[in-house]
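Input sequence (294 aa), recorded before submission:
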Amino acid sequence: MSIVNFGSINIDFVYRVQRLVLPGETVQTQGLDRFAGGKGFNQSIALARAGCPVRHVGSVGEDGRGLVEMLEEEGVDIRGIEFVAAPTGHAIIQVDSQGENSILVHAGANRDIPVNTLEGICAGMSAEDWLLLQNETNAPEVVLATAAAATNRVVFNPSPLDAALLELPLHRVDTFLINSVEGEALSGEKEPARILDAMRERFPAADIVLTLGARGVVYAGLEGGRLKVPADEVQALDTTGAGDTFAGYFLAEMVARGDPEIALRLACRAAGHCVTRSGASPAIPHRSELEPIS
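Predicted structure, token format:
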């Protein structure tokens, strides 16, 4: 059993600032770092470091060859990555003195994955494989429809938000990984409990994982019960890759043991380690760095 991740691959330009820039304002940065990134890239790295077999599907330009090599070095199956004429996607990230961030993403090659590639990989998946999808690549409706028809378990992290997202066949999703902003957009509610209520009513066949940053995570499963797990108390340096780290570790543990509570606790621990370091993928911990979850 493995996870096939249809995801973005980006170059991240991370600017350190005292506070996030306001509309119409110009500020001097305190530093600049360049990292490999993209939600898809980060989640594949997190899955691999958590010990889960993962195949990445995506596309990059010629300037992205080094990123593909990085995935391969981490043990990610890269046979689903194609090189296209468009430049590799990139992100401009502000990180303030409290570790909070603001991100501007240019899709680039991430929106140029050939549709026949997507269909072919979906058709070739084992029935036991899980499918992971974000909203940073093209043709998500093709992936959702094809994978669901093949009875693969579909996990959707609906980020970044846009109007087209609500037109997707979201009833085909088995697990939603969302934060409070995404939860509000999908449910029309702001309070975590009401978000979960609305999501369960709208998507009764799906598990809902709602991350709340420093407040931890809440989970609503198909059986009707709910779990709440606190975040680890750490001094945050950079929260950029926390959500992707959480996603990778949560899914890796669910594939391995299928216990939501253990998976949530492990994912919170991994995310807590991540935010104490700079960058997205470089900050993702290896499983050997984490204390075991019993």
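Checked by second reader. The helical segments are 39-49, 65-73, 115-123, 140-149, 180-187, 192-202, 242-256, 260-274.
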